[in-house]
Amino acid sequence: MDLGSFFRRLALVSFALCGLAVIEMDAAKASPVLDQQDGSSPGFYPIDSTSQLIGQSFKVGIAGQLDSIDVYFTNSTGNGNVTLDIYSVNSQGLPSSLLADSSNSVSALGLTANSFYAFNLAPSDLTVSAGEQLAFLLVPSSATTFSIGATSPATYAGGVFFQNVPRGYKADTGSLLFQTYVDPSLTVTPVPQSLSLMAGGLGLIGVLALYRQRRSNLSHG
User: Fold this and answer.
1) pLDDT of residue 35
2) First vs last C-alpha separation in the chain
3) Which of 87, 94, 116 is nearest to 161 (CA)?
4) How many domains is the chain built from?
5) What is the CATH number of the domain that holds 125?
6) Do the Cβ atoms of 107 and 79 come closer than 8 Å?
7) CB 119 within 8 A of CB 84
8) How far apart are CA 78 and CA 141, in angstroms?
9) pLDDT above 70 as % of the chain
10) Are residues 116 and 55 in the same domain?
11) Which pLDDT does position 48 carry in this prediction?
12) What's the pTM?
């Protein structure tokens, strides 16, 4: 076998090792997991159009990417949308700065029975840290009415239930029924085998590059 054939095969092996490393690190990623929840037996809290907004603050327990928030709906009318906004919070646990949002059409939610319905937040790439306090706010469009599960007194200790008032937001008694899901994959450290594979592949690519450089120098010498 001549040197040219040898290094061509070496190049294939190098790229294969790097590819295996990427696949192995990707396989190490976790699926979204349940983080915070209040799943008590609910009472029902009616929401009418945009004249009334309610939300819930919560404390993140798992670091990673906030994947979705499920909220317990009971029924709805109209053809509008329901948007879930994610906020950072102030010292009172009330909304401060908008971070992300997700919208569902009322018809897409298919609110025909009491159930949790998911608001997908994965496209927002919102990274959260354990212990971080956040809040979600439910915003119905015009001509939309729905009811949502809530408890009173509060059964969730990691945040506060709130509603909008003319000058901002006001904490109230009770808590909304919700579930948060976090994808912890962004905090996964590559396993040592993956790093070894990638290092080996990059090293072989370096050898190949050096060989090509020397061959080019000889041909022009």
Assistant:
1) 97
2) 25
3) 94
4) 2
5) 2.60.120
6) yes
7) yes
8) 9
9) 60
10) yes
11) 52
12) 0.70
Residue 48, amino acid: D
Locate tokens 């306090």: which residue?
Answer: 133
Angle separating helix axes 192-219 and 3-27, nearest 10 degrees:
150
Structure tokens at 159: 């945040």
For tokens 């994959």, the residue is 185
For 137-159, the pLDDT digits (tens) are: 998 887 777 778 888 888 899 99
- Strand segments (E) across the chain: 33-38, 43-48, 54-59, 64-77, 81-89, 95-105, 115-120, 127-128, 133-140, 145-151, 161-165, 168-172, 175-176, 178-183
Q: Which two tokens stand for residue 150?
A: 């809530």
SS3 state at 216: helix
CA 11 to chain centre: 38
- 136 and 69 in contact (C-beta within 8 Å)? yes
> Do residues 115 and 180 both lie within one domain?
yes
Return the closest-CA partner of residue 72 out of 182, 146, 174, 171.
Answer: 146
Q: How far apart are CA 63 and CA 35, in angstroms?
A: 10
